[in-house]
Amino acid sequence: MSRRITIDPITRLEGHGKIEIFLDDRGEVSAAYFQIPELRGFESFCVGRHAEEMPNITNRICGVCPEAHHMAAIKAVDDAYGVTCLPAAQRIRELIYNAFFVTDHTTHFYCLGGPDFIVGPDAPASERNILGVIRKVGLDVGQQVINTRKRNHELIKQLGGRGIHLCGASPGGWSTALTKEQQAEFHKYAEENVAFAQFSLKVFEDIVLGNPAYRDLVLSDLYCHATHSMGTVDTTMASNFYDGNIRVVDTLGNEVALYEPRNYQDNIAERVESWSYLKFPYLKKIGWKGFVDGQESGIYQATPLARLNVSDRLTTPLAQAEFERFYETFGARGKGPLGRNLPVHHRLATHWARLIELLHAAELMVELLDHPDICDPNVRQTVEPRAGMGIGSVEAPRGTLTHHYETDERGILTKVNMIVGTTNNNAPISLSIMKAAKGLIHNGKVTDGILNRVEMAFRLYDPCCSCATHALGKAPLELTLRRASDGALLDRVSRS
């Protein structure tokens, strides 16, 4: 008799989701599904709005990554209106965006993904959280985490108008210039960010890489998938969070695509499955081959690990040194095509890649604040609406984020499409969950620790389900009625 295991809700992510695992008669896993049951519909109800409103509408999609939507939206508006952002305004945008990367990656490592390593994957669920992390590493570390988030949100608040759901973007510019006093204050913030990032990398080295059991887990086949990788690079093929072209490399490190964001539809297609509101993007030139990995599959990942895989280098010295050490550890440095690094496919290594990006973002903040023209008061310009198409793309912490708008002559939106980081990763998340479940569950034996290790397979992607759900597709609606006293199932009604 078959059996179903449900993890609902899945934990330590933004949004709502569940995992359904099906066992066969022998108690072995026959199928596993990562389901997103929530529907947001931003692509639909934004049609008919003024394009200039989009940065302040779409940043309400999520309270974790409003900066990503704010920047992608204003870049799409710039593109639709045919305007180039003023230089000082662009530096302010990038400064804010790198501060956001610091806060977001800090949150994931210490609050969401980190507890599985710092506290332990088999620790009681009540301890696998930020409080458990603080108990393990000390109150001073908890204070550093709080201070890091505090100072960077203060920067975002001062320059963006609000600490959460910022409102500073304007077509072709920014609403406020940076003062000399702010420059000095924020430079201290950036230097503190660099020190905190180096500290966090040392924590990872000591607790994860220094623990044979955890190191073996990172290097094991359990969480390993060979898929294509996607990320944004500059003209020198170095990783760039804010601007550049999209690069895709295959499982062996060969470049298979390098395109401007406005050409995303020539390269990416989206598939809909009946059991999830979340779409499944894939590489159009390869095609959808199903939920399989490997060189012939059209599935790709767009994560911090993917961004390292597509990059020839990083642009800041401390992060570049960590970049080189990362690939050296996996025996992949310089072993790929044309002397590039071989891609790393061990998905738990994404946590390490995320910390390298944390350091990279902190160093970029220092560089931006050292620029002699960052306090230029010329940050706003007059822009006239027009009929057109605009594509805005940034690297969200979770992956490549694309906003696509079409406007009429009054600047009213006639079409809106968004592909967000978590959507890009939907198919590989499903693959990772399936592989982990099959590798961990045998003879029908399930423990809390085993189920948490299954959850680790999606948690490493840092999914933001609120960002990723849209109006396209149909999903089953299931109503479960349970007795309050003991949780016994009384009735289940479903609509397929």
What's the topology here?
Elements: E1 3-7, E2 18-23, E3 29-35, H1 42-45, H2 54-58, H3 66-81, H4 87-113, H5 115-118, H6 130-137, H7 139-160, E4 169-170, E5 173-174, H8 180-209, H9 212-219, E6 228-233, E7 245-249, E8 255-259, H10 264-267, E9 268-271, E10 280-283, E11 300-301, H11 304-310, H12 317-329, H13 350-369, E12 388-396, E13 399-407, E14 413-419, H14 421-424, H15 426-440, H16 448-459, H17 465-468, E15 477-482, E16 489-495
Parallel strand pairs: 6-11
Antiparallel strand pairs: 1-2, 2-3, 4-5, 6-7, 7-8, 9-10, 12-13, 13-14, 15-16
Helix pairs in contact: 4-7, 4-13, 6-7, 7-8, 8-13, 11-13, 12-13, 15-16
Provide structural commentary.
With 496 residues, the chain is of the alpha+beta class. Helix content is 41%, strand content 17%. It is built from 17 helices and 16 strands. Helix 12 runs antiparallel to helix 13. Mean pLDDT is 92; it is low at 471-479.
Question: What tags apply to this protein structure?
Answer:
16 strands, 3-stranded antiparallel sheet, 4-stranded mixed sheet, 496 residues, single chain, globular, alpha+beta
